[in-house]
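Table S7 (text form). Paired inputs.
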Amino acid sequence: MKLPFASFLILYISLLFLLTITTNAKLISTNIKSTDKVFSNICPKTKQPNICLIVLKDDSRTRGAANNHELGYGILDIAISQAKSCVDVFFYSALKMNDGDRKEKYLDCRDKYNFAVGQLSEAKTILRKNDFATARRRIVDASQVPISCQKEIGEPPVEVRSANIVLDFIFDIAYVIVRELAINRNS
């Protein structure tokens, strides 16, 4: 039985996690204006504009972005970190298991998240080369991992569940950024 409150609580905890990993660097006012313009161009095009603003403004890897390229690098860094944390959770959860079949499924999911880390890393490298279509495909490939693992193991550990919620938002933001870069190049 799913409780709406439990889902909200997991989302709240995930967002709180994002807030706690930030630093308190101050930005000069001109940088704030250009950053706000970049955010206001991207966030309304995402599935969750308010969460997009929270993520982008509160993380040091995206907070000072002056353009979509910088924002793309930052959001991919965040996605890579989140995916790596899922790798660790699946690995340590598998170590504690006695059921060989279930343990194997967890290790398989760990490998899938390692694949996602690789895809996101490639997307970041490809983004530097302005190959936006290929970068978008890498992001889409990585975004399928949480879905695949959930189908394979059912309900994931709470740490992974909350990380998946955050990853879903981050994948959406990254996809929008790369799509905007492609549109701007073609216009």
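Next pair, protein 2 of 2.
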Amino acid sequence: MACVAVTWARPGSTYTDKWDNINVDEILESNRLLKGYVDCLLGKGRCTPDGKALKETLPDALEHECVKCTGKQKSGADKVIRHLVNKRPDLWKELAVKYDPDNIYQARYKDKIDAVKGSA
């Protein structure tokens, strides 16, 4: 749901690594930047090129357990999820309503989500 570095796929391999070097910590530490990405994902605001790519790729990454994600994208996703679950549950809930209205992914990833709770 929050794979900030996830982007377009090359057939049969991984998503492009074009944005693998995005500073995820900088985004998470800035309410303005984080809100911009979340608003993009929720369709409430304008998207940067990387935000647009994330918005287009996120459903596939969720459905297929980030199998096409690069190592950096998986690491970034884990960091973003940990931050949202522990420090911004309001944003986590909004994203879950949009990208997981039937609670499919919350159930599928329950153990992973529970494991990051309290480990900001």
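Residues 38 and 44 are 8 Å apart (CA to CA).
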